[in-house]
Design brief:
Layout: E1 6-10, H1 15-26, E2 30-35, H2 39-46, E3 50-53, H3 59-73, E4 78-81, H4 96-106, H5 108-124, E5 127-132, H6 145-165, E6 170-177, H7 187-191, H8 201-212, E7 223-226
């Protein structure tokens, strides 16, 4: 008898998070979605899953999501960590408060749910965690300073986590989107993409689905760019 797989998508009410939830559901996963807007609950209902309205900045809301998922489905096989947008300003004009907000949006949005969900995956002796990061994590873009700084932290966190839990068959990887259609189209940005177009949320979701699959079972601790060739460094 095959085991029904379960995916939790944090900040999955819209954009790339919602696309990931839809793709994973299409691939046969039961999905549980957290979003602050209520859109996640509606999407989860549409997909036959579980939806919780809450914040990925609240340990209580994340714990409620995990508890309800385990109560209903009995396991968590995949965790997808998405997020919102943090403060943007010239680097010397960013206040202490804005830096702290950036840390919540871009780094703690990974650390909090992983701390809650990973022990269940270790107990199961298997799981995949995929964090939606940014293509500019190693080549920072001055337009997005808080994103660049704290998502570099996600890369370090991912390597440490992978070293620690690979033997338990719990994997963690980062997807690094470039200019994606969930953002407003800017002609100059599009023209700087070698493929001469924005990517789609569905293309990012397909990469997430692969990393969640058994076919990616030997991949952990990696950064996978989905950016149309914008960043080509090793």
């Amino acid at each position: 008898m095959s085991v029904e797989k379960v995916a939790v998508v944090v900040a999955g009410g819209s954009g790339m998070g919602a696309a990931a939830a839809k793709r994973l559901a299409a691939d046969g996963f039961k999905v549980a979605i957290l979003s602050s807007s209520g859109k996640g609950e509606a999407l989860a209902k549409e997909l036959g899953g579980l939806g919780v309205t809450g914040s990925n900045q609240s340990n209580d809301d994340l714990q409620r999501l995990a508890d309800l998922t385990l109560e209903r489905f009995g396991r968590i096989d995949v965790l997808v960590n998405s997020g919102g947008h943090g403060p943007r300003a010239p680097i010397l004009e960013i206040t202490d408060e804005q830096w702290r907000t950036g840390m919540d949006v871009y780094l703690m949005n990974v650390i909090r749910p992983v701390r809650i969900v990973a022990p269940q995956m270790v107990k199961q002796k298997g799981g995949a965690i995929i964090n939606i990061s940014t293509a500019w994590v190693a080549e920072p873009n001055v337009m997005f300073p808080t994103s660049a700084v704290f998502r570099a932290g996600v890369t370090a966190y991912t390597k440490i986590f992978s070293n620690t839990y690979a033997a338990d068959n719990v994997r963690m990887n980062n997807v690094l989107p470039g200019w994606i259609d969930s953002l407003p189209t800017v002609e100059e940005r599009r023209d700087n993409v070698p493929m001469q177009r924005y990517g789609t949320s569905e293309e990012v979701a397909a990469t997430i689905a692969f990393l969640a699959s058994e076919g990616a079972g030997y991949i952990t601790g990696q950064n996978i760019r989905v950016d149309g060739g914008v960043i080509r460094a090793l």
